[in-house]
Known about the structure:
40% of the residues lie in helices and 24% in strands.
Amino acid sequence: MGSERVRQTGRPLDGVQLPDALPPSHPGMSRTLTLVSSISITLDEDQQERARIPRFFSDRGVSHALSSEFTLPVRATVATRRYTAGSQAWKRLRRELDCADIGGNIAVAVGSRYLILKSAKLDHFGGGAYLLRTKYALDEQSTDIDFEEFEIAHRAFQDHSSVKHLENRIADLALGDTLVGETLSRRSLRSIHATFPTDPTAMARFLRSNRHALVELHIGSQSATPSDPRLAARVLENSDNVNIKDEAQLLLLNRQGVSHYETRGTTSPYGNRFEKALLLLEVGTVFQQVLLDAGRRGYSRKTWEQNPTLSRWIDHPLSTFFSSVTNRLIWESVARSLALREILSEVRAYSG
């Protein structure tokens, strides 16, 4: 792959106009790249009865992370049952899969670098709704990442057979390895968080100059020509409200995932934005899966009347996220991307 690619900056690479250069780093500090795969899974009643989660994942009890992170009112609280991958899961994966081992961690080769599997956790939202999150980091072979390595890692994470095979196997283990081979309702997200130890002015200049190239990476354009500019414009428009106040960071969000670029070690008032945006997109994706599966899973309108949390989030974002305008704006971007209001309206209209 590398021998056929254009390495010079500022020239097209797989149809994408590359940035002139990544932001400069301070001496001795590295750029960091974190990649997260999130899979929303819904099970029918029969599958729920046969799932055996604790076998390979450890039960960590009820998690109130969502409510505490966003200071949700009691009526809009979302609590999940959390499970984390234990030693038995890692042993099973090492035995079954042809993966590299770096520092005792499972790793997948992408170009000349490796994506290192750092963690896996499963949140049960109740009923048959689950969210599996696996986190990876780009290995630290050097103090810097050039744009070609960055681009290769980003694209490989989005569409790499080894990564997909690994996460599908983790999903099987998360459900107790009892539903292997069955058709499960799944929806995947790919998210990336890149931090650069550079000054905010240089970061802002880089983001202004190369915004469309970064959008192309976010939407995963694989063609030899750039994607329709209207698609990039739509992503930028959907994320516009959450990027107004800080030019030294860029958050891109749509139904495919979250991409966030920011400086590291600054005193920005918008810290932890990637985690917040990803949490909200994950919740929105779970809501969407539950709603889309309503007819097939035999849910009824009564289900939503008895459990109004989902409806509150979609119908009343102002009161749900009363403590933070930024959180509300991110959630509204999520809801638009996933068409949650329209899907809920349809369920209400046609459910029994």
